[in-house]
Sequence to fold (474 residues):
Amino acid sequence: MHASVLATALLALTLTLPARGDDLPDLGDVSEATLSITQERGIGWNIMRQMRESPNYLDDTEVVDYLNRIGYRLVASSPGARMDFVFFALRDSTVNAFAMPGGYIGVHSGLILTAQSESELASVLAHEISHVTQRHIARLLNQQQRAGMTSLVALALAILVARSNPQAAAGAIVAAQAQTISSRLAFTRDNEREADRVGVGILERAGFDPHAMPVFFDRLQRATRTYETGAPTYLRTHPVTFERIADIQNRVGSLPYRQVPDSLDFHLVRAKLRAAQGDLSLAVGFFDELIADRKFNNEIAAHYGLVTALLRAENITRAATEMAVLARMASPHPMLVGLDARLKIAQKNRQAALRILADGVKAWPGDRSLGYDYADALMAVNRPAEALDVLESQLLKDQNDGRLYELEAKAYAALSRPMMQHKSQAEAYVSAGNLAAAVEQLQIALRNSDGDFYQMSSIEARLSELRKFLDKSQ
Fold:
């Protein structure tokens, strides 16, 4: 996140919190020994509201879903996981990841691109998961409970800045009026050692190679000699000493070596991120050279990256040629299906894209990206009723997906059903944490008469529920 965005976000967060903390849960007695998981989650959730408004927030479903798949594979092997986790990505070339209060874990695109194996990426996520499960952040926040909810949330955001962008940390801490505790923003050495120890266990139980953790940290440590601006960001926010690396090596030394193949998803996500960064011609040239010299780790991903870069450069003719090459060498995969559909749309062949996406949704009914793309494509050819069927099917799997509600609201608008349009828009606002706007949308919905008795009753019940929640938080 850029410093100006963070400053604006912090100011907005501080000014909009009433005495009891907006729509966050009450922290309770300040003499309480520790923050509860619910309280910690509430703080993290409120910070995420600001994060999603940042231009650095990477709203790419394929990347985010991949991070959550690998993340939850690790969480499932973490005995101390007592809360839901959310993994998200930031468009940032620096090598970094950070844990926020309540199980929110951010990953910079630069970290994904720097990791040379899936186990290396998993080792960093396991370390961050351990900071959450061992309640390291909660302890930091708990030390400042007497400052009140507003200061707590501001402090939490300052901690996030320190993790994500050390250069901006000082300004954010000043804005949060937390200068006196700046020395506490860094995890202690004991915190780091504990996260390493717990993370190694998570890696092993999840089926990754635990030896990847010291290998990755050692490579980052050695890379400091080649960085003009000093250590990689991850090393500045998570200091890695030679002693710490040696300690991790000792821990994994007794564990059997296992060769863990990288998933195709790992390679495709890295190729997609690489194709999206830098100059257009350089992006295409990067993959051309990779394929010509056969220097790739995965040939399918190299061709996927080339097609993605060509589409970005609007070289549609060559993208179609290369897509044909990719189709001949690869087995069906949802990311390849999505890429083929995007190519067909770029060729202005929406009917072909619809057929590809319809088959893709049937083959992978739980894939969010294909579901979004299919609904979008149906709306583009004026088939909102069919789009609505697709969206309702997707919402049965995830009733908290704000983007699905946004698309549903558009479909209802196209069908001239304003009551349901505003009801869906209200749920989209709830997912984004804007409960006041959600209440307003439900009130507008009730002023329309195009729904039946059941729909009106459902809206009235939801409106009453949200009003009660808002009243309690004021």
